[in-house]
Design brief:
heterodimer, A: 273 residues, mainly alpha, 2 domains, 0% strand, B: 427 residues, alpha/beta, Beta Polymerase, domain 2, Rossmann fold, six-stranded parallel β-sheet, four-stranded antiparallel β-sheet, 56% helix, 13% strand
């Protein structure tokens, strides 16, 4: 099990290296290899998570190490899907290292599975966690695409075309893919929050308990609501949308880490050392 | 008789060695080319011949046994048929022999010798010239092979280096930029304000990218209608330009107006009704038509003529860098071709042939003797002797044939046949 985990990390890193090589030298074969390696890593990772699920009889998101592992898995998975739908090969240079580093940190953190409390055995909770993480992965990619957008836009506006201008795709592709990520992420986050509320009701007898993580989740959700609303009404696209995607992901990261480390709440247990 | 092997000779002039007056004077038209091919091929010194003539160069490629005579024949032919004197021609002309000639042809074919490095037309022009020579049957073994290698290396250079990747003309640079902004240009709407060669060329490039509607605004409406007809677009009046800002995506402006045709506040206001869909201004006019402040508005991009020239300069530098890589590839191809040419020599071919036959006999002999353990040492020696004699006698006549000019009188042809017949080049 341990070695399979190490092997997954190695595959993610190998994929990152391949994508970096592709980015520099623009060789299509290398890009395909990077995709294949990432896909292999993702499948292996899925098997590992499945095995953990079976042995522990609970979804493995009980401490920070496990949650990070799930995050890496979600990022890899959402990227693979996105790459299938959109011709955004270059995003691999962001997604693969993100998955690799997250996975590495997860492996370095102590992972002592605590007694599976009945809390973790619920199907609702499993769904809640999976949906939320997939949504957050989509937002993570939207953030990366936003960064690419800003770089490319700067190159075009400043009229200094260089290294990135040639390698990054058109502004339109970046903008529409980023938008697609945000729509998907938003739908998943909304569903995840609803499932979470329902589950909270069944466990604690109330939908909402002013838990800090709940509050911050809703704040992040509102950032995306604002972004989507503005896009649909007055056409907030391009630069503004890119910046908002980055801010939104910042809020999500704070919800994920900041709340656990700085504030307290009933989610804290799952993501503490 | 031991006649020296045919040499490859390339004589020519190009944009670097001759001014346009000289080039247009020496250039061969289609009929002149055919005529010259036949006349020069009739010269005993010249065994194979191809003439490449474009607006930037004339290259006369020959295979000849007698170098001096061949060069003199070409010189005489040109000074007799063209309005140019000997000294003026000699000054502009370069002559490359063998390896240098091969290298030069490869460089030309790969577009490394072009005025604009990497321009794609030259390869097609050489192909046409080769076709003409092939039709007149003036190209033989040497030049056929040489030209095919040239096409091969040219394609390889194009696909494996970035030599032809980026735009080096103003109008094409504008199209490339548009693609970096909009991605797919299909269905994007274009507005041309004014007229002018570069602007019209840009519209034509855009049309090739299957853009949607084209609008043309011109100070003289009639001229606008004419232009619109050419682009299958629609003419509008100058006063309608403002309202079309909501509709179109790419605006190419090239008027002689003294002030700005389109100002910042005007675009800022339109961006709202456009729902911030990107707007790309290509300003080819001097003085400028488009307020440069528009470039600071979100989702609006302005490139004036200097910006586009800056892009081109960058791209040319990029091509020059890639050219270094390409030259290395050409050098490899030259070495390979020289190897092939050297093999066309008689002696190496006879050696190769003997080695091949000896190799076959030896391995068959070993197999057979392995199964005949009962033979004595003397028996074995006798069998070996017989095998050696067989090889010698078999090879005697082909060797004679090769050494004695061959039947067609062209040694390269006989060598080539032998090499192909016995597959000497496939090891």
């Amino acid at each position: 099990m341990y070695w399979l985990n190490v092997f997954t990390i190695l595959l993610y890193f190998l994929s990152s290296v391949l994508y970096a090589v592709y980015f520099f030298f623009q060789k299509k074969a290398v890009q395909r290899a990077g995709y294949a390696v990432l896909l292999t890593g993702f499948l292996l990772h899925s098997v590992l998570i499945g095995a953990a699920l079976v042995t522990a009889q609970a979804f493995p998101a009980r401490n920070l190490s496990e949650t990070l592992s799930i995050s890496a898995w979600a990022v890899a998975g959402v990227f693979l899907l996105l790459r299938y739908k959109f011709d955004l090969r270059v995003l691999g240079i962001y997604a693969a290292p993100l998955a690799a580093v997250t996975m590495l940190v997860s492996a370095l953190l102590p992972n002592q599975p605590r007694e599976a409390v009945t809390l973790f055995k619920s199907l609702w909770l499993t769904i809640h966690v999976i949906i939320i993480f997939l949504g957050e992965a989509a937002f993570a990619l939207a953030c990366g695409i936003g960064i690419f957008y800003l770089i490319q836009e700067h190159a075009i506006k400043s009229k200094r075309h260089g290294f990135f201008y040639k390698r990054l795709p058109s502004l339109d592709l970046l903008d529409s893919t980023g938008y697609a990520c945000i729509v998907v992420g938003f739908i998943l986050l909304t569903m995840g929050l609803i499932v979470g509320f329902v589950y909270a009701e069944s466990v604690w007898g109330r939908f909402w308990s002013w838990d800090t993580k709940e509050v911050w989740s809703v704040i992040s959700w509102l950032v995306y609501v604002a972004l989507l609303h503005q896009r649909m009404t007055v056409g907030w696209r391009g630069r503004r949308a890119a910046i908002m995607a980055i801010i939104g992901f910042g809020a999500l990261l704070f919800t994920f880490f900041g709340v656990n480390f700085l504030l307290k709440g009933h989610h804290g247990d799952f993501t503490k050392f | 008789m031991n006649a020296s092997q045919a040499q490859i000779i390339l004589m020519g002039l190009n944009h670097k060695t001759a001014a346009v007056e000289v080039r247009e004077c020496v250039a061969f038209s289609q009929e002149e080319t055919v005529d010259s091919l036949l006349k020069l091929k009739a010269q005993p010194a010249i065994s194979e011949l191809i003439i490449i003539s474009t607006c930037n160069r004339v290259e006369i490629l020959m295979a000849a046994n007698d170098r001096q005579a061949a060069i003199a024949a070409v010189m005489t032919h040109i000074s007799e048929s063209k309005q140019i004197t000997g000294p003026a021609l000699e000054k502009a002309l370069y002559v490359h022999v063998n390896e240098a000639a091969v290298r030069h042809l490869f460089m030309v074919a790969a577009s490394l010798d072009s005025m604009i490095i990497g321009e794609p037309q030259i390869l097609g022009q050489i192909k046409d010239a080769y076709q003409v020579a092939a039709d007149q049957q003036t190209a033989g073994v040497l030049l056929n092979r040489l030209l095919h290698r040239a096409f091969f290396i040219a394609k390889k250079v194009r696909s494996e280096t970035g030599i032809g990747d980026s735009a080096v003309s103003v109008s094409y640079a504008a199209v490339e930029l548009a693609r970096k902004i909009f991605g797919d240009l299909a269905d994007k709407q274009v507005l041309l304000i004014g007229a002018g060669e570069m602007a019209e060329l840009a519209v034509e490039h855009l049309l090739r990218q299957r853009v949607g509607a084209i609008f043309v605004a011109n100070r003289t409406f009639k001229r606008g209608v004419e232009l619109a007809e050419r682009f299958k677009g629609q003419a509008i009046r100058m006063e309608e330009v403002n309202e079309h800002l909501t509709r179109v995506d790419i605006i190419i402006s090239s008027t002689g107006a003294p002030g700005y045709m389109i100002t910042g506040p005007q675009v800022k206001e339109k961006m709202r009704s456009r729902k911030n869909r990107p707007l790309f201004f290509i300003d080819i006019a001097v003085p400028r038509d488009i307020d440069p402040a528009i470039n600071r508005i979100n989702n609006a991009y302005v490139y004036d003529i200097d910006d586009l020239k800056g892009v081109i300069d960058e791209n040319i530098d990029e091509r020059k860098k890639e050219a270094v890589k390409a030259e290395r590839m050409v050098e490899e191809a030259v070495i390979k071709f020289q190897e092939w040419v050297n093999n066309l020599d008689v002696v190496p071919t006879i050696v190769d042939l003997r080695q091949k036959v000896e190799g076959i006999v030896k391995s068959e002999l070993e197999k057979t003797l392995h199964g005949l353990k009962h033979l004595s040492e003397t028996d074995r020696a006798a069998v070996n002797r017989m095998a050696d004699a067989l090889v010698k006698k078999l090879l005697h006549d082909p060797a004679l044939y090769l050494k004695s000019e061959g039947s067609q009188g062209d040694r390269a042809v006989s060598v080539d046949i032998i090499r192909k017949l016995f597959r000497l080049d496939e090891t």
